[in-house]
Amino acid sequence: MEPVLSLRSWLAKVESFGELRHVKGADWDVELGAIAELSYRQPNPVALLFDDITGYDSGKRVLTGSTGSPRRLGHTLRLGDDLDDVGLVAALRGKPSQWAAAAADYPAETVTDSPLLENVIDGPDVNLLSLPVPRWHTGDGGRYIGTGCFVVTRDPEDGIVNGGCYRMEVQDEGRSATINAVPGKHGAQHIQRWFELHGKAPVVVSFGHDPILLITGGTEVPARISELDYAGAIIGEPVPVLIGEHTGLPIPAGSEVAIEGWLRRDHVRNEGPFGEWTGYYSGKRRPAPALEIVRMYHRDDPIQLGAPPGKPPHDYSYMRTVMKSAMIEDALVGAGVAGIRGAWAHESGGGRLFIAVSVENRYAGQAKQVGHLTAQLPAAAYMNRFVVVVDADVDPADLGEVVWAMSTRCDPVKDIDIIPGTWGSKLDPMLVEGAPPYNSRAVVDATRPFERKADFPAVSTGDPEYLQSVLHRWAEVFAP
């Protein structure tokens, strides 16, 4: 019987509803990544399972596109196996806050047996390149095993466990890997505190698992909640974990491949560049902490979970858009803001850079309040660049409607506020080399002026109910 959060169980289910395609014979060097990139651009992209990869034995596989459709994402989040975009958004409404509240009821559960223990390799014999680790993009500085990974750290003072998704380049001919943790993220904070207190930081990494860990590791789970416990709340049962003998950290028992080891402040390797979620290569090759791997675990015929970013749409841009949108809407409602009708973190902005919020504007200044609050929410603050607030008659997920509202209901002189000195990123292509990673963001009020709500020109479109009745009556005209 497969363990909880087994990638193999997930694959079997996704294949059963026709959204998995097998690809044989691709080369790990750029070709595999190119096939994945072309797949993301298709109208209905499927998940791809690569096997017989050039230079590797059959059975050593790489999966891409795991969360790129509403059906796969809905299944992963245990919301249903037959959802479309509209159904997925409706099913997600209110869920992030419910999962956060319930996480304490599903603490990770320690087990002593797992298929992950089929192969246990100690430090000197570890070779990450025994796996078909791809070089995903032509301009990448190396082979990246960490794209869909789950990096486990623990706060050295309060013991809270974090799971993050950070890029990891293979180093030292497979004996090590750099971990490029984003400054300000919980995992990076843990590592820094370990350095300050003990000079080294314990780390565990899983490279193949149910994509639910990609989701929890790649979105902003609230502080002081373990992503493992949050995942438990989503699936409705505790996540089983092994305990690393060397680090004492939890290792997902359903993992295909995992390593444990130590980061040290002075143990670094040059890393990058890498094609990032902004759609650009991220800077020059520069030093990053390299993990001293003390043990590697893997199942027979292991499967890596790949999630390479790039110019949107990319591997996880759909997932991030849907999840971030739900988290932002939940956070605004939870903050007590009245009249919130929806939020959408647009995929073309990587699910972070461009956010639209629709609101029933009830009082003077509310649109600006909503915009500024959204721009600094924990779920939205990292590398946000634009927040656009629109009226309730505008669909925030429809970029055409949002631009129409900006073009007809916004006076740039008084309706756009610029906030300087906010939380940026070293991944920002606009950041000057060597400068601190600040950014600025614009809050755009694209709602009807509050004082003109009564006499603002009416929208020249039919009444929605009447249009629906016409559509029904004249259905043959609109038949495909």
TrEMBL record:
<dbReference type="GO" id="GO:0046281">
    <property type="term" value="P:cinnamic acid catabolic process"/>
</dbReference>
<dbReference type="InterPro" id="IPR048304">
    <property type="entry name" value="UbiD_Rift_dom"/>
</dbReference>
<feature type="domain" description="3-octaprenyl-4-hydroxybenzoate carboxy-lyase-like Rift-related">
    <location>
        <begin position="113"/>
        <end position="312"/>
    </location>
</feature>
<dbReference type="InterPro" id="IPR049381">
    <property type="entry name" value="UbiD-like_C"/>
</dbReference>
<feature type="domain" description="3-octaprenyl-4-hydroxybenzoate carboxy-lyase-like C-terminal">
    <location>
        <begin position="318"/>
        <end position="446"/>
    </location>
</feature>
<dbReference type="Pfam" id="PF20696">
    <property type="entry name" value="UbiD_C"/>
</dbReference>
<dbReference type="InterPro" id="IPR002830">
    <property type="entry name" value="UbiD"/>
</dbReference>
<feature type="domain" description="3-octaprenyl-4-hydroxybenzoate carboxy-lyase-like N-terminal">
    <location>
        <begin position="12"/>
        <end position="81"/>
    </location>
</feature>
<dbReference type="InterPro" id="IPR049383">
    <property type="entry name" value="UbiD-like_N"/>
</dbReference>
<dbReference type="GO" id="GO:0016831">
    <property type="term" value="F:carboxy-lyase activity"/>
</dbReference>
<protein>
    <submittedName>
        <fullName>UbiD family decarboxylase</fullName>
    </submittedName>
</protein>
<dbReference type="GO" id="GO:0033494">
    <property type="term" value="P:ferulate metabolic process"/>
</dbReference>
<dbReference type="GO" id="GO:0005737">
    <property type="term" value="C:cytoplasm"/>
</dbReference>
<dbReference type="Pfam" id="PF01977">
    <property type="entry name" value="UbiD"/>
</dbReference>
<dbReference type="Pfam" id="PF20695">
    <property type="entry name" value="UbiD_N"/>
</dbReference>
